[in-house]
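Audit log entry. Action: structure prediction of a protein-small molecule complex. Ligand: fe (ii) ion. The ligand was supplied as SMILES and no pocket hint was given, so placement is left entirely to the predictor. Protonation state taken as written. Sequence taken verbatim from the request; no trimming, no tag removal. Recorded inputs:
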Amino acid sequence: MNAMPPLPKQRKLSLKERYAHLTRGLGWETTYQPMDKVFPYVSYEGIKIHDWDAWEDPFRLTMDAYWKYQAEKERKLYAVIESFAQNNGHLNITDARYVNALKLFLTGVSPLEYSAHRGYAHVGRHFVGAGPRIACQMQAIDELRHAQTQIHTMSHYNKFFDGLHDPRHMHDRVWYLSVPKSFFEDACSAGPFEFLTAISFSFEYVLTNLLFVPFMSGAAYNGDMATVTFGFSAQSDEARHMTLGLEIIKFMLEQDEANVPIIQKWIDKWFWRGYRLLGLVSMMMDYMLPKRIMSWAEAWEMYFEQAGDALFEDLSRYGIRKPKYHEVASKEKHRLSHEVWSIFYNYTHAAAFHTWMPTEEEMTWLSAKYPDTFDKYYRPRFECWTEMQAEGKRFYNPTLPQLCVTCQIPMGFTEPDDPTTICFRSADYKGERYHFCSDGCKDIFQNEPEKYIQSWLPVHQIYQGNCGGAEVKDVLAWYHLNFGTDNFDYEGSPDQKLWEEWQAQKATNPV
Amino acid sequence: MTVTAIGRYEFKSRDRLENFHGNQVVYWHWEEHLMYCAALALPLPPSMPFRTVLTDILPGCYNLHPEWSRVEWDTVTWMLDQRPFKPVLDASLAANNIGHKSLLRFWTPGLHGIGGCAT
Ligand SMILES: [Fe+2]
Ligand SMILES: [Fe+2]
């Protein structure tokens, strides 16, 4: 029998070579179909790309490396989640009021992770360049993992606390969740380049520190070790996403000068959209965390005013300036959280989480953090509400509010230079009136009115008869919200009752 | 300006009048009383007399505010869709030129909110 000659020993490919095969090896000029038919969405937005190869993923991640690394991280995360459940980790949080921040996160943010997954999977198919295509596909998998691991992490709380039972359904229906939902659908229904400017750049790069850092440090400060561990496990992904955001912007800007004004318009739009969405985070930081990290105003100064200055200084060489109305956002920093908390306090009877009036100690903190505004404008309101509640007449606004057509938030924001007067803006389009909370939201509408005249505004939808009925109870049933447990003030809620029972047990049974 | 789209992009407004079953949406806002965090949206028949809104509708909306009982309608100043406005109380909303998604803001002299701080 002839002995087979031994196969020549295959040289192991270097990481760089493997990445080259994965990207350049998978991108070719098509011949059976013309390129513009295979990639139908890359030109209609007006962005000109001359050399797709000029974009190189700085992480050069290959599939096998990705799998190995992420599997390792998730093994650790699930081990922590498991031990958190076994050791009743929820008993170690600072106060049950904290769980309301998780309710907001699970219904408002986790579904966005899933939307991000879909958005990146879509653009990951539609870019001509293999480099950005692979980077987007990797991010699509990251985002799916984020949605999944967040749901797994927080599901432990669902065993004990109300309002966590049906986040996906609520996201599509509940009035305030139309704010994050419509934000993301606006991005996903744009072209691939606007999507990346919106999500990768404006959101992930410019604003993400104002979303993830507050929630994850909030978890750490308030003893929620499960959520902290999720935060750590997502951190390396976030670093990659932020890099993609900045690289893709620079790539577009470098490819053609004609791209600059288009991108500037998107930066203006998505800065304002993102900033309005962060109003929810501002109230979380200043009102919902029993143990505060820093105030919203401080976070805005650190993460936008300072970090943003450096970023836009860097981009100015391409002809990009700071986003329009950034100065309005800075004027609003001393009132944003108070106005947003007031909105939710007004309508807690229709929300999937509880609100409450700050304690005297918390008001002292707010006065110290907001010396020019809190005592002057908000303390008297809160003291009045506290008194009403003490008399058994907790204030709930019985009438539905006017909403901004663009951001869909109740029109509770005040004039940039006058915190005592609501900012009303409006526009006529084809004989119909539309209302906005700000010049930022009005500009966005006027640039693309056809898009926003379709806004699914929850208040108008209720009045049109599309939300299960006319009574609050009917609408809440349609939201899959349990009337009397998920909604209303924290004071007197089943969450509070259970928490106080646990505290009493702890006191009589010290371990 | 127009939307950037891959093809024809024309849709009807989702909140057009005909979708409200005979009502029109009218927004009302009591200035300097931000305990009510935003203007209120009310679905109202265009034939409803202006006075009826003041006597039958708004009290149920605003009477939780300690200053509500002191509102005197003959001293109130109004703005309708950015213009100064004097309502004809016995005329209908439509006859007062109040249309679908009109905004009415009103100021109550002497009443500036709790502690005078617009709350
Ligand atoms: Fe994510
Ligand atoms: Fe808005």
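Audit: result stored. The mean pLDDT of chain B is 96. The two ends of chain B are 39 Å apart (CA to CA).
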